[in-house]
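Intended use. Records like the one below are meant for learning the mapping from a protein sequence to its folded structure. Do not use them to infer anything beyond what is encoded.
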Amino acid sequence: MTHTDHAVMTTRASHKNTRSPLKMGAKQLLPNLRCKSGLFLILFAIIALGIYLDSNKLGANFDNVWLASFHNRNMQKANYQVQQMQICNLDFLQRYLIKNKRFLGYGKWVNRKWLPKECIVPELQSPAQLVSCLKRKKIRKIGQTGDSQSMKYMAAMKRGEGIFKCKELKRETRSIRTPSPSYFSPPLDKKYLTVANRDCNGCAGELVQCTAPNGIVTSDIEVLITEFIKDHEITTKRNFWKGDCDIRLKQINQIHCQDSVTTQEVYFREYWPLSGYPDVINIYAVHVHEAQKRTPRDFARDFTWFIDLIVSVIPKTTKILYWNSPHVDPSKQPVKWRDVTGNEFIKQLNAISASVIRKYIIEKNATNLYPMFDLYEISKDVLHWNTDGVHFEPIWYKTVISLFWATLCQS
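Structure written out for the chain above:
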């Protein structure tokens, strides 16, 4: 072997020895790579699962946010609509009649409380609110006219939402059908008064003085009986040649020797002007009585006369509130009245009332004349409260008077 051959062999051996550790290292690394690859795949799967779950959660959150946003938008829209609705005050009821040619009566009963559809009735939630209202508006006297229904509204009003304590100042005799001349004297002189029998048995005028707690406010409340739009149950007669004219009335009404041929004239041109006009007068419709003796045409003529009378003599400082007639329940009426005082007739008279009142507000500038809520429409869903075909249980009168207080105190 030459020196060269030995060198070549030595080099090959050296190369062989050099490659052998690399081969051995790769064999050792394969298990490690498999292990790491497995771990990587596991980690990748975990991360992918987390991303999937997060994406679903994000989607759910997005759905919740969208639903919440949708709900909020609806709530905001509803709140906006509520805010756009106006408070049910006297001015709103007056504008409503002018626009719609009818009294406001669409609504619903909720927990024995009536809620209108077109406006919001504020609640008098505490006695303090009513006291504050009467004091703020200086309401010292409230008058009411009507038949036996008016006496029942009077009974509810005397409660004053639970705060009034009332004492009777005077009252007509209830056991007879005729007006009591002594009730109207003073201020009128009894010798000028003439009375006739009323149709209503037990109807009687009454004046009470009601005081709130601690004597903060005191209001007189009076009811005077009327059975028709033109009554003749109490009248006056004076003669110039006898020298019995009342100079006080001449100073008030500029009539040289005034006398009154209707009950309404006695009340509105003599009695209340001399004793002091109320700050508010509730006039309750007497359509059940009108049905006995009037046609709709008769009623339209007489009602126009009546409205013309009150808006011409009652001062603008007095608010005149007119309430129409509620439903009757023929099934509970005596047989002899069922064909007389029917709901269809009452509905016609209510429509005539609305038309005449609207005309006087628009054409005669009767700004102190206010239509109240449509009792005919309101009462149709609570006829189970009707007791005898015409009159209702006390809850009805309490509800109506609560509407009166709430509306009056927001005007």
